[in-house]
């Protein structure tokens, strides 16, 4: 399953954005999805992840975004969101969503650009 991130854009420091992660196929249901980001000149880094454990969505967030970003899923569990609040300049990056499996295999699709600038 290949996932696609969308919803990026330009936002001022302190602002908010919500990214969405969807599949081109109709049969995607949440198993384990991760959000990563890559800033210019830096390595791709983990941002957040969400895993379905018997119907319970378990989430985790990188320390750098805890309290500001929230990963979630919709009721149908076919879309994953990354709500980003209190954005900082250093949050500027290309954001990717992926299945945990493809991320482990280092297989990535196109991301969505988030630019935080005044």
Could you explain how this protein is built, in words?
This protein has 118 residues and is mainly beta. The chain is 4% helix and 49% strand. It is built from 1 helix and 10 strands. It has one helix at 100-104; strands spanning 3-6, 9-11, 17-23, 32-38, 45-53, 56-61, 69-73, 80-84, 93-99, 112-116. The strands form 2 sheets. A 6-stranded mixed sheet has the order 2-10-9-4-5-6. β4 and β5 form a beta hairpin. The model has no long low-confidence stretch (mean pLDDT 93).
Keywords for this structure?
118 residues; mainly beta; 6-stranded mixed sheet; 4-stranded antiparallel sheet; 10 strands; 4% helix; globular
Question: Layout of helices and strands, plus pairs?
Answer:
Elements: E1 3-6, E2 9-11, E3 17-23, E4 32-38, E5 45-53, E6 56-61, E7 69-73, E8 80-84, E9 93-99, H1 100-104, E10 112-116
Parallel strand pairs: 2-10
Antiparallel strand pairs: 1-3, 3-8, 4-5, 4-9, 5-6, 7-8, 9-10
Task: Give a quick summary of the entry.
This protein is mainly beta and 118 residues long.
